[in-house]
Amino acid sequence: AARPGSLAQEPRHKAASLGVGGQVRFLSSRNDIPELLAAADMVAVASVWEGTSLSLMESMAAARPIAATDIPGNREVLGPGEALLVPADDAPAMAQAIAALAADPALAAKLGQAARDKARRLFDLRLSAPADHAQWASRSRETPHDRPDLVAPVNRRHRHAWRPRHLGRGGAPVRGALRPAGGHGLFRPDLRPAGI
Hints:
By secondary structure, the protein is of the alpha/beta class. About 40% of the residues lie in helices and about 10% in strands. It starts with 5 loop residues before the first helix and ends in a 9-residue tail after the last strand.
């Protein structure tokens, strides 16, 4: 949601200049997203750039048919048969995708259900957390000889003593094993276990 300020007013002015100000609602920050999605016929995400989109994941979980731009962040979340993807900055293509979903309820329902199935499989913490835990547990049992890419010297004086990078003594996770580098939010690849 747009924050108060000059940028928040631009879409309102644009809608008014196009003569659709009365048909467009700018809802701001909301706490009732599941209810709003349940009332929606479809979701359109016209981002030119996007990271991992929470709004797409929420829409998928609600089984809403989605028209979205075909950009890297959206492709990470949506695959073929889960949404209609259109080129970024192509308003006519987005309009066609929205019209196609509105005109074909069977297609819209099929895409919405496929997206929900994927959301449950990949994004539902109740299902994905046990799998993640099992993966970490299996890695904690590996020895340096099994996975040399996961180990680092314990200290300079005892280079022969090795342990997995993400585990401390006794197999306990090391706090800060994946710590930010340089304060810019990126993780240091030299401290990240391979394959994660």
